[in-house]
Amino acid sequence: MRRFAERIRRFMQRPGTVDLGRAWPVVRAATAAEDSFRGLTDAAIQAELARLRRTDGAAPARDESIAFCALAREVARRTLGQRPFDVQLLAVASMLSGRVVEMATGEGKTLVGAITAAGFVLRGRSVHVVAMNDYLARRDAEWMRPLLTALGASVAWIDQHSDDDARRTAYRADVTYAPVAELGFDVLRDRMRVDPAELVVPIPDVALVDEVDSVLVDEARVPLVLAGSTELPRPDPVVTEVVAGLREQTDYEVDDERRNVHLTEAGLDRVEQALGGVDLYLGENVALLTEVNLALHARALLVRDVDYLVRDDSVKLISASRGRIARLQRWPDGLQAAVEAKERVPSSPAGEILDSMIVQALISRYATICGMSGTAVAISEQLWEFYELHCGRIDTNVPCVRDDEPDRLHLTAADKLEALVQHVRERYQAGQPVLVGTRSVAESEEVAGALELVGVPGVVLNARNDAEEALIVSRAGEAGRVTISTQMTGRGTDIRLGGADGVDHDRVAGLGGLRVVGFGRYHTGRLDDQLRGRAGRQGDPGSSVFFTSLEDEIVRDFVPGHRPPTVVDGEGVVHDGLAQMTVDHAQRVAEGAHLDTQRTTWCYHQLIGIQRAAVLEHRDDVLHRDAAVELLRTRRPERYAEAVARVGEAVVAGAARSIVLHHLDRIWVDHLAYLDEIREGIHLRALAREAPLHEFHRIATEEFPRLLPAAHDAAEATFAEAEIGPDGVDLESLGLRRPNSTWTYMITDNPYGTPEERFLEYIGAGLRDGAVRLGLRH
Amino acid sequence: MLGAFRSALATPDLRKKILFTLGIIIVYRLGATLPAPGVSYKNVQACIQAAQKGQQQDVFSLINLFSGGALLQLSIFALGIMPYITASIIVQLLTVVIPRFEQLKKEGQAGQNKMTQYTRYLTVALAVLQSTGIVALAVRGGLFQVQCPDVIPDSNIFTLIVIVTVMSAGTAIIMWLGELITERGIGNGMSLLIFTSIAARIVAEGKTIFNKGDESGRGALILAVVCVFALVIIATVIFMEQGQRRIPVQYAKRMIGRRMYGGTSTYLPLKVNQAGVIPVIFASSLLYLPDLITKLAFQNKTNWFVEFMSQYVTNQSSWVHLLIYVALIIFFTYFYVAITFNPDERADEMKKFGGFIPGIRPGRPTAEYLNFVLSRITLPGSLYLGIIAILPNLFLSITGSGNNQNFPFGGTAVLIMVGVGLDTMKQIEGQLMQRNYEGFLR
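Structure tokens for the assembled complex are given below, as produced in the milestone run.
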């Protein structure tokens, strides 16, 4: 019956919204028991906790759940001075049963997360709280430490500066707060260890994901990549110089979406001449051509202060989805070096991919997954598709009275800026706090500059001044304060009206509360909602409005060649329903495109993941058992006997292990590079009506059986030649790995569509042309 | 290949999927033979017998083929998969005409889901329309166009409504079955159901051939010869469908250390039959036109034009007809390939993504080179399509006239069947590959 109902729901394509209200009776019972817990001594609370503790990991009985909720509420009140609201306990109960909950901003997600973690620990499990970034991981861990400790759970956190020992200690805690990237890197690094004692990550148990939509969906488009340094030719300064002298339009062309660039005929001639009359398109000149292409990409497509910052003589990437510096990210395959050459900063070491993993694979390792976010229901379908997670909404504690005004659409970007500045000035003069949301560092500075000109002092929060973030955000609710920020997700701190201590709360509330002003829509509606959610927390008054224009990046990129609006007033404001729909449409196209990228990445990584698991299984045999010795002894008995006689069995075993591990890792790196190479051109197969993914699988599968024998052969050869001294074997001369960077890959699977679609497109274009000529269409 | 199939059946997960698919197909075939309530099975059989003796009309033959003969049986799945195909085509066409649909198409998965939903609604609407038409035709005795007993003996309005409802519901169920196969079984559900329908006709057609031959006493021999021919044709089609010319492509967007890989795996494939089955469908549809025109314009009059038309152009065994047919197929193949492959666009894309054919400059020279190779390879491709398409006509003396589309060993039928078969095999192969890693390293 349940499956039948599910079938119907799927048939009707309802998003997987589940009813979280089922836990209400537990919460009400806990509230009823509140007074009896209020009087308990600390010792009595500890005794009660001991009674509830179990080690089998199973879900507690109903009365135990009630006791836990009441207990957690009392402990939170004593340790943090915060009494969890009923809705917060409801969220805890839902997450303890493995759900994803949506809670509006300012509803106290951090507290909910900590209580949930304590609940899991009480069942005898260990929890990783997956945070978006270092800052939140550390802040939340320290903030919640008293509560968690009082509930009998040990707490630790990890950030990018933690060393291996600190990580091992942190992972031993009951509750470990860690940013998603660090969790991923620890897993990846563990896969490359050569000594069992060096392993860091324990067996994963419970993952509690904060900002679940950002971590599991937005960030998941970018695979986590472990890289080691390698020798790549430095960019030739001549190439950089030649490319710097090229002009757009005449020498090179950029496509509408500003994602690809190529030389024109004239530009090509110019480059070839400047490089000494070579023919770049001969097969043997591919390296030089690659250099030219990379330099051109760096010159034409990557913009300083939008895509990267130059700080301390080095190039720092800005994460497009977060508007902050992505410390661990680098551009792949020589692009980083090309940008560094363009900015004339010293070049950093180039890397090669040692191993990679997608966020889905990382999170799927956990036995139980739950999560929370301010905007989760919008992605419930993806959460179900990729993680088999159900998700539901928790009502706010006090009804939200925020007034979300319709967008104000302008014809040009200049009109939009003008209107926004006027609007912010009016609000500023009235004394109302204003939060302006922008999409890039450059944009935030453009807005701040324009406001400055009309006498409005704004505080900018962007990638340049992350450090003061908490302070800036906490003061954003003060009267007469104008804050200009890049994307707000993961900024953590609440904006309280009247400042952090809320002394001025009532006066600011009287002015209408926080005014959120968006400087254009983000690439997904969820980010818009995150920004809006900053206003109107806990029933405060507040309002939001977005200023958009038909020249916004999102419209330009995703709906090129849209119909010009028909109704425009003197100030460039568009009063045209269809044009407004264009902006909405652009956002939906962007969302669809992102989802497609994610799905494609997932599909392509799935097989690699299976192959990796197979290799790792063998690797574990080598690492933890004596597979290496057995292999080399059977293959080279005389050499083995000779070495054992000279340095002893244990040393030879260690040497054999490191030799085999070295070659296993080496062969995997080469395999990954090969697959990358294949993937680059695999979309061409679609032209022959073949499925690129399937062809990719076929090639990868045919290649795979060759890996292990090749690694074993290489290990045998090394074993025969390498010096084995009393300290084992010296592999330094073979030179390998120094991990630590991520870079991004975007993959498109089939850019062509089916032949039928292309034919239809052709017919459609003819029809449209005809209609235009007959005057039926504009 | 058989080995692959055996190991597919040995993999529990895959075996489940294959058995599930087979189960659905059985349900589909059962429904195709189950008469709708109110239809007299006996009378229908009598009518089919009578119709086979007489001249069969072409009007319903394609629908009948795609429904696996269920149409003329007036079964609960009488409409087969046709309403769904028509609905898909209409929705696809609307994407180029209606701005709203155009937008949906670009909105990725969410938009796609909405379009699928519209397609489903349209399918049901079309099914109601078509079943009403067919029932009306059946009541008036127009379905078989021969003298035979009433197929719906008790044709009061209530019975008719029940039949229409049942047939429409049947179509919705077929649609669901197809989606079930795609979701939980193996291969593309809709394609597999079409495959099933066409394959189901083979037995019936074989029987017809046998019966016709039996009149001269050599039925078994003729059937055997036809079967041998059929195998040869299928093998040829499989061979030709897999043929492709591979143009090496290099990408120059990434700096790679150590060594160059992939040299032989990165290429631009050009199929011998790049166009697929579409040119044949275009050509045969166009050849129906003269027949239609003469019928409409001249009713029952006879003059030299009508004579000429029926003698040469519409007569499927005349060499004029065959020549025009082949010429049209060749034309449409070139036309379709030129539009769908579009060398200029491909060259532009390669330029955009940093790809190139070694030794050839990007842009115009690349487009010209692609064009050159494409026009060379399309010639044998189009001739092959033409020959496969007229094969049934060459067998006309054996199968009886008018059965062009129905003959399962040539024309569109064999092209579709082999296409679907190859695709499904590839899917099984793909699933098999992913599952073969366990215990593979020891």
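Chain A touches chain B through 85 residues (CB under 8 Å). Chain A has a mean pLDDT of 81. Further analysis is deferred to the final report.
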